[in-house]
Amino acid sequence: MDIWTAEKIIIFSFLLKGVCCRDFSVSLPEKIEALSGSCVIISCTFEIQENYDPYLTERATGVWLKDGMHVNNNQVFNSRDPGYMFSGRITGELHKKNCTTVFYNIAPNHNGQYYFRIEGHGILIWTYNKTSTINVIGSPPKPTVQLYVEQKEVQDQEEVLEGSSVSLRCSAESLCSSPPPTLTWSSTPRIPLSDSSRLQKLILISDLNFTATHHQHGVTFTCTITYQLQDKNKTAQNSITLYVQYAPKISSSSSCIRAVVPVCFCEVDGNPSPELEWHLSGRPVTNSSNTFISEERLSITGLRSSITLHQSLTNTSTLQCISKNTHGTARKLLQLPLFYLQFLDCQQTTVSLLIILALILVLYALTVGLGLYKMRQLSTKLKAQNEAADTHASLQLSTLPSEYETLNIKRGVCCKDFSISLPNKIQALSGSCVIIECRFEIHDAYDKNLTETATTGLWMKDGIDINKHKVFTSRDPKPDHFSGKITGKLHEKNCTTVFYNVTSKHNGQYYFRIMISERMKYTYGTNSSTINVIELAPKPTVQLYVERKEVQDLEEVLEGSSVSLRCSAETLCSSPPPTLTWSSTPRIPLSDSSRLQELILISDLNFTATRRQHRVTFTCTITYQLQDKNKTAHNNIDLHVQYAPKISNSSSCIRTDVTVCFCEVDGNPSSKLEWHLSGRSVTNSSNTFISEERLSSTGLRSSITLHQSLTHTSTLQCVSNNSHGNTSQLFQLPSSVALSVNEEMDTAENIILFCFLLKGVCCRSFSISLPNKIEALSGSCVIIECRFEIEDKYDKNFTETADTGLWLKDGTEENTHKVFTSRDPKPNHFNGKITGKLHEKNCTTVFYNVTSKHNGQYYFRITSGEDLKYTYRNSSTINVTESAPKPTVQLYVEQKEVQDQEEVLEGSSVSLRCSAETLCSSSPPTLTWSSTPRIPLSDSSRLQELILISDLNFTATRRQHRVTFTCTITYQLQDKNKTAHNNISLRVQYAPKISNSSSCIGTNVIVCFCEVDGNPSPKLEWYLSGRPVTNSSNTFISEERLSSTDLRSSITLHQSLTHTSTLQCVSNNTHGTASQLIQLSSSVARLNLFSVLIGVAGVALVVVLLSAITCICVIPQENQDDPVSVVMSSAGAATANQESIIYSSVDFTNCKPREVVSGSSLHADYVVVQDCSGGLSKTESSMGESSRAIEAQVIVSADVLTKQTQSKQSEEEPFIDSSQLYAKVQRR
Predict the structure, then answer these.
(1) CA distance to 1020, 1022, 1037, per residue, from 1047 (Å)
(2) Statement: residue 915 has pLDDT above 50
(3) What DSSP designation does 98 have?
(4) Which of 751, 916, 1046, 1184 is the most buried (most CB within 10 A)?
């Protein structure tokens, strides 16, 4: 047999042993995190020796032991009695070796180590020594938010390029809650969001996918996880701020203004902050005697520049604004205003032009006077002719020569066409109904046929082929058609329709078709309505109103404020209508009022805010009552109430050998608490000892211990205050009690106390002090702080040379679980060292080069000689992490910790504290600060009890508003460095500040600009001579929001207001007021003299043209005494023989019935009206139709003979174009 055959046999034997020689073992998760109030699942499978298989039956019992392996003392669960101690159930099948268990109603007493025990039939009884540790947490863990760009994960501080595909992923453990938790996204400022959620191996994931744009720069996205527990909901959230880099974009408002000299403005926005240049005739421009350039930083990404040009540069130059950053270039060509040459002698030119203007006006007056005289003369003659002969009008349908123009009557007035009005999209709830609001229009030619009995409405889905796509008809519905009804009246052109029993089959686009018997069939194919069927009812909208103003749900509400919670939702066509109900966690009495407003169901919950409502969650639930089942959806809001401190009635003093007084206070924001003794503030000293305990985010308890010497003549007062008020309480100090009372009892107590103390010194037992959990970074080292005690009888043999310390992992069996010994370490042991001195009962140990193998529970064992060998049952759990844990960042304002979302007042003393554990790295880690955008930073670092702390101290200014400060910790390991970071965004509130660029520009009117920056966003008003100004005939005010804190307003003033008035720009917000007096130029009229002269010349030109037209139109011709003919025409066109023309108007409203006749006349001219319908019959023509609000031009002509000839010809011609309607004015 060769060596290879021997090896194969050995390997086969080992494999065979693993298959055939099973042993007792159990598979458990090392650590499980459970949320208080929910449930916890322990995934568990076990194995037994094969000779016990016959005893493992369906009647087997599973037992769980906690914090020990003693059945009588440590049993907390028995599958035969599920309510034994902990409520739960073994969900696995024990006879199949599955011991998976769920515990319900998790509370803090569930914390601990759990051992599984199997009890089968007969001799099968075994307790497994491997444990699973349950850690109960009161608050849910924050979800994890990750940023992916082009499907690659990046750090949240990394800049994202505009146009990139961005995915924000929020993930969290489901933690065995029922119903499962939900993940929701929100953003600040608010933008539309669309996410998709899924459950993947008990991890809940929500992805928010979009393409990055410059609108998302600086937006903070927040992911909130909500666990719906029995008593109340619990939430946790995490956020990420997106930083988008994009090429410059020049604002469309960039333009030039003509003042004394041309001034051009260019505004650009880009990230990184762009540069801006001016190019004149293609060459870059800098400051010189002919040009002046100024720049102003509007925001971190916004820049505005202005350039002032000498007039000599505006005639032949082109001006271009060019901006660029690392991502691109933008340019805009600006139109320079044209400037006229300045005259050498301004006064002489003005006088000359005024003289010319006066002459033109005189000439015009003479022309108009002559025209009026001729008109009056002609009018007298016409009146005489009308009195001599009875004149009437008759109508005749005829054609006219092509030179006559026609008057088009607009199609919208008399010619209706096919059209329909439909909603673009409709959302419908599965199982309910859906309403399609519908109105239509048809051609007016079919109006008379549109009757109630003859009209049919049809609906087609996803196409307009009636044979394939018809799903509904108002007459003779088919079995395969949708169930519904046209609720509108078709003969009134109302096609509103309702479909019942909506299912997913109703999804699609709907087209309407109208049929009037067999005469008209029309499908409205261009407009459609899309129905989207949803299975789940949409969440209602919940809004918070304080003093009738809407606020964000995270905003603090002041106690005593009038609060209104509004819940609103669409009715979605359910029958009966849905209902809105309110509930609260914890429960408090609620009273609401509901109403229906334009298909929106609204419920208001009105109350006055009190401290009892602080952190109460109000939930609004909408219930749709459908045929098969009800469907519900809900939304909630957490109320945060701020209130003055209130001292609890339980605050009191207790007298023992010393006097101890307790004071409990509740307030929001968290209150300060001080003790005053005889009116003076007390601190820790030899006679007083003060301690504080934070009971909750709003509750604080303080105790003071007083020496007896202070209790006789002193008065003690507890004083508490916050930003909303203060309170105090005077304490009654107990009088001294003589120790001589019951001397015998005191002596007995002293003896008992002495005995207990003596026992503590002389009667020691085995005990150990270990940290419960230790977190270690992979690649670094880990320190286990350890102190132990032994029974006093072993002290004599306990020496430095005889003592040995051992560490056992995941069990207490030395041969199986030993991983370290202080003497004679083995190659397979962990590399480490006991740094404490064992003979001084210090077992502190360090393990080096930590890897994932170090994960587990560690038990300490002490040996000394042959007598002392003891393994301690308390253990310490090491958790090895691959990534460095994030540091903690805290915000302190005036040395008080506040939430990072809270606004900081400008001028406040701000401290940002970053802290992190050192985690036993060989060279200590380092903390560094950075900011976005970058600003100078100065920090100080220190090490405090293995916690590394770095403080960033400064005074808050407006420049730090919305700046994100990032703290990065760097662990220097052997193979590579590992880093982690956390950040905080600072929000600074500050009084308004008016920009230095605020000024006035003189054109034909005065335009003044005022720009202001403040947080909260300021208001801006204009004051003229000390009085506030609003929009009027002399003033026009407009505002433009530049950013969330910047506002720009402009006011346009009439010149009459600029001589004696003073103009002031006034801005204010809650933190102060700013004002600036703006200098008005009194010489605007002189500065704009050339504009006035240009206007005068233009007026003169118009006057000359009017004079010429008047002369042509008024002067009569030679044959003005001939009989008169009247022709109505849209343009006043005439034949070649018409020589003189006068324009007037004809009103047909006063014609007498007897004057309307048919027939021809020798002396007739024509009134021409063109109708756009394209087909009117002779019987449809009437005087009423042609005179409906029509005023046409009338041509008075002396060429009667020509007109008579044309009249005869028109009577003999057939009716060719029925679209023209002619009216004759006949003389008899």
Answers:
(1) 8, 13, 13
(2) yes
(3) B
(4) 916
Percent of the chain with pLDDT over 90: 26
**Of 679, 745, 749, 675, nearest to 706 (Cα)?**
675
- The pairing of strands 640-647 and 556-558 is parallel
Kindly give the interhelix angle for 1089-1114 and 346-388, rounded to the nearest 10 degrees: 20
Query: What is the mean pLDDT of the segment spanning 1145-1173?
Result: 39
Cβ-contact 214, 271 below 8 angstroms: yes
Length of the chain as a residue count: 1228
Question: % helix / strand / coil in the chain, to the nearest 5?
Answer: 15, 45, 40
Structure tokens at 884: 């460095």
Q: What is the pTM of this model?
A: 0.36
CA dist., res. 278 & res. 268, Å (int)? 13
Q: What angle is formed at CA 1008 by the lines to CA 1002 and CA 1010, rounded to 5 degrees? A: 150
CA distances from residue 63 to 60, 67, 128, 550, 857 in whole angstroms, order as listed: 10, 13, 11, 56, 21
Alpha helices of 665-770 — where are they, by DSSP H? 743-762
> What stretch of H or E contains 498?
strand 497-499
Q: Return the SS3 of 15.
A: helix
Q: What is the Cα 1137 distance to its own chain's centre?
A: 76
Cα-Cα-Cα-Cα dihedral of 948, 954, 956, 961, to 10°?
-60
> 1127 near 1167, Cβ under 8 Å?
yes
pLDDT in tens, 158-182: 688 999 999 999 998 887 777 788 8
Span 236-252, pLDDT tens digits: 999 988 889 999 999 98
- Look up residue 227 and give its amino acid: Y
Q: What is the mean pLDDT of residues 402-407?
A: 36
164 is written with which tokens? 């990139």
Residue 771 banded pLDDT, cuts 50, 70, 90:
very high
DSSP at 143: P
- Output the CA angle 423-428-431, nearest 5 degrees: 150
Query: Between β-strands 425-429 and 529-534, what pairing exists: parallel, antiparallel or unpaired?
Result: parallel
Q: What is the C-alpha separation between 422 and 419, in angstroms, rounded?
A: 10
Nearest residue to 118 via CA among 41, 63, 50, 53: 63
Residue 783 bridge partners (DSSP):
846
Phi then psi for residue 114, to 5 deg, are -115, 130
* DSSP class of 1114: H
Give the span between the Cα atoms of 1008 and 1001, in whole angstroms: 6
The residues that bridge with 806 in the sheet, in sequence order, are: 821, 861
Which tokens belong to 774? 């230790």
In angstroms, the first-to-last Cα distance of the chain is 147
Asked whether residue 19 carries a pLDDT value surpassing 80, the answer given is no
Q: What is the distance, to the nearest Å, from the Cα of residue 576 to the centroid of all Cα atoms in its chain?
A: 34
pLDDT tens column, 453-504: 889 999 999 999 988 999 999 987 788 889 899 999 999 999 999 998 899 9
Q: Give how far the C-alpha of residue 1148 lies from the chain's centroid of Cα atoms, to the nearest Å.
A: 64
Is residue 1156 a contact partner of residue 1199, using CB atoms and an 8 Å limit?
A: no
User: Tokens in use for 911?
Assistant: 């401290």
Q: What is the DSSP string of 1014-1055?
A: EESPPEEEEEETTEE--S-SSEEEEEEE-SSSEEEEEEEE-G
Backbone angles phi, psi at 496, to 5 degrees: -55, 130
With CA atoms as reference, report the closest residue to 1008 among 995, 1017, 998.
998
Please tell me the distance from the alpha carbon of residue 467 to that of residue 476, in angstroms, as a whole number: 15
Check: CB of residue 1137 under 8 Å from CB of residue 1117.
Answer: no
Is the CB of residue 76 less than 8 Å from the CB of residue 65? yes
* 1148 CB-near residues (< 8 Å, 6+ apart): 393, 1183, 1186, 1187, 1190, 1223
Question: Which SS3 state, helix, strand or coil, does residue 630 take?
Answer: strand
Would strands 699-706 and 529-534 be described as parallel, antiparallel, or unpaired? unpaired
**Residue 617's beta-bridge partner residues?**
585, 638
**Pair of tokens at residue 288:** 């010189």
